[in-house]
Write a structure and sequence with these properties.
With 140 residues, the protein is of the alpha/beta class. 48% of the residues lie in helices and 26% in strands. The chain has helices spanning 28-37, 39-45, 64-78, 95-108, 119-139; strands at residues 8-14, 17-23, 50-57, 82-90, 112-116.
Length: 140
């Protein structure tokens, strides 16, 4: 049986920050499609230190197979320079549950994750993370 992707995702890059804007919930097929669609962005970032800004709308919930797919994708990205994720949740019915769900996924992936109320504060934090990571590379 073939499943139709559920959930929307778009992406862009700004100053070594991979920005993902999405409306959930998501299934594995949506994440697989996004991975194919975003491969050029990954090629641009891989080999550098980079961060991720996730802007979610609606309920940012992943089906179980989507959660496993995302964990593996984050682990792969981390091998290629991904250092941190900042997440802004908008228009969510149960923000407490959403944070628990997302925190669990990112914890299993070994990702440094912080939640923010605004895109501006999230970008500021990511820029500080990138600056610190790049200083370590220079000193190392």
């Amino acid at each position: 049986m073939k499943f139709i992707p559920h959930g929307k995702l778009s992406a862009s890059i700004e100053d070594d920050i991979f920005i993902i804007d999405g409306t959930g919930p998501w299934n594995k097929e949506a994440l697989e499609q996004a991975t194919r669609d975003f491969s050029a962005f990954h090629q641009e970032l891989y080999g550098k230190k980079w961060g991720v800004l996730v802007l979610t709308h609606g309920d940012p919930i992943h089906t179980p197979d989507a959660s496993h797919f995302l964990i593996d994708a984050i682990k792969t990205d981390k091998k290629h320079g991904r250092i941190s994720t900042a997440l802004v949740i908008k228009d969510c019915d149960d923000i407490k549950f959403a944070k628990i769900h997302i925190r669990d996924i990112y914890h299993k992936a070994g990702e440094n994750l912080q939640f923010f109320k605004s895109e501006q504060s999230a970008k500021h934090w990511l820029q500080a993370q990138l600056s610190a990571a790049n200083k370590l590379v220079i000193q190392g």
